[in-house]
Amino acid sequence: MDLGPYLLLASLEGAITASILALTAVGLSLVFGVMRVVNVAHGEFFMLGAVASWFVATYLGTHPAIGFIAALLIAPLLVGALAATADWLVLRRINYDPERTIVATIGLLYILQQGTLMTFGPDARPVEPPFNQRLAIPWPSFEGGFHLTWPWGLGTTSYKLFIIAAAITILFGLWVLMSRTKIGLIMRATQLDRDMAQAFGIPVERVYALVFGLGAGLAALAAVLIVPVQQAHYLMGGDPLLLSFIVVIIGGLGSLPGTVIAAVLIGLSDGIISVFFSPTLAKILATLLVALVLVFRPQGLLGKRIA
Question: Angle at Cα 170 formed by Cα 289 and Cα 287, nearest 5°?
């Protein structure tokens, strides 16, 4: 069998990883960029999105497509509202102090994780995809001179391709929100100078609650997309959190374009290396890349130095 089909399959799997990682990491980068808050509980909001998706799909008990659409609408809103409430109850009370917010979000992490364990249980729960047609991966190869053959043994599913398309659409919508709307202008003004924005009458604390909820909602949205491929369980927030931090550091703290570029690089390399070698090697190389970035370009690919 030619190497080509395996490389294409690995690239597709890497693109799926990159899509989910981009959505999750962009939420983390957005929170840091606007609020200067390192949200250690970001992975648990991802986990809550997956668990909420399972609850919605199970409660409705109808066609998988109806349950998926309902989860796609309900889960990010619920998780975003919970995050905004956490901002109001916790982060605002400590005045968004960088050191104390790290400790506070660590505490929030354990509260969400253990609360989910008590209500959801320790078992992993599957969510049926709304559609899952098998698609072959064609790859031309020459056998016996110039005879063209098409090996159909490898393939993917229509839902996996949908994940990539949905992530691109959501990221484009986020770009429109940040660059073409009044809400995005207010967010960017708050990011540049909180005190000046407050002097011009911008309700900074409300903006912070909105941003924190939006970041968590993006993570939950990513979880809703991936949970039909994986399974929902209360410990699934660890890997997305780690990889999101890796992506944000490489792309540049607070830089959304840099975060997306880094997510594509890490996701594709993770998919290809995992298929041909091992997932552990992929994580080791990603960690080494972070070390190199911190040594030679601490601000990341597209980030700016923080004075």
Answer: 10
- Read off the pTM: 0.90
Domain boundaries, the chain: 3-129+154-237
Which residue, among 17, 19, 34, has the nearest Cα to 214 in the 3D structure?
34
The pLDDT of residue 148? 41
Instruction: Give the span between the Cα atoms of 70 and 78, in whole angstroms.
Output: 12
Ranges in the chain, pLDDT < 50: 1, 142, 144-153, 307
What is the DSSP code string of 266-304?
HHHHHHHHHHHS-HHHHHHHHHHHHHHHHHH-TT-SS--
CA end-to-end span of the chain: 55
Percent of residues in the chain assigned helix, strand, coil, to nearest 5: 70, 5, 25
So what's the pLDDT on residue 307? 46
